[in-house]
Q: What sequence folds into this?
C-alpha cells in the first residue's frame, strides 16, 4: 500500500508544480493511462515470444500466473493444488515497519 500512497503523493506534487507554472500535463490523463497500460501489456510480449521460440505452449494458466500480476500489479497467486512451500514462495514478504 505504501508504494501506492507515495505514487499518488508524488503525482499530486507534480500536479501542484504544473499548476504553479501554469502548464498543462504533457498528455491528457486518459491517454496517458491507456499508454501506460499498453506499455505493461507490451512488456509481456517478449516473455510470450521467448516461450513460443522455446517450443513451450502459452496456456491460460501460464498467462494468469506470469502476465496478469505484472499487468495489474497484484502478487501472483499459486494454483490451488500447490504444496504449502510453493504457496509461501509465491507471496511477497510483508515488510515490517516499526513506526
A:
Amino acid at each position: 500500500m505504501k508504494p501506492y500512497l507515495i505514487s499518488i503523493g508524488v503525482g499530486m506534487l507534480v500536479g501542484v508544480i504544473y499548476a504553479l507554472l501554469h502548464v498543462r500535463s504533457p498528455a491528457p490523463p486518459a491517454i496517458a493511462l491507456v499508454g501506460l497500460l499498453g506499455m505493461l501489456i507490451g512488456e509481456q510480449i517478449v516473455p510470450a515470444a521467448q516461450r513460443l521460440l522455446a517450443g513451450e505452449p502459452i496456456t491460460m494458466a501460464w498467462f494468469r500466473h506470469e502476465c496478469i500480476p505484472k499487468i495489474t500489479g497484484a502478487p501472483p497467486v499459486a494454483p490451488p493444488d500447490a504444496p504449502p512451500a510453493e504457496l509461501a514462495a509465491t507471496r511477497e514478504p510483508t515488510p515490517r515497519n516499526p513506526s
Remarks:
- The two ends are 15 Å apart (CA to CA).
- DSSP finds five helices and no strands in the chain.
- Residues 2-21 form the longest helix (20 residues).
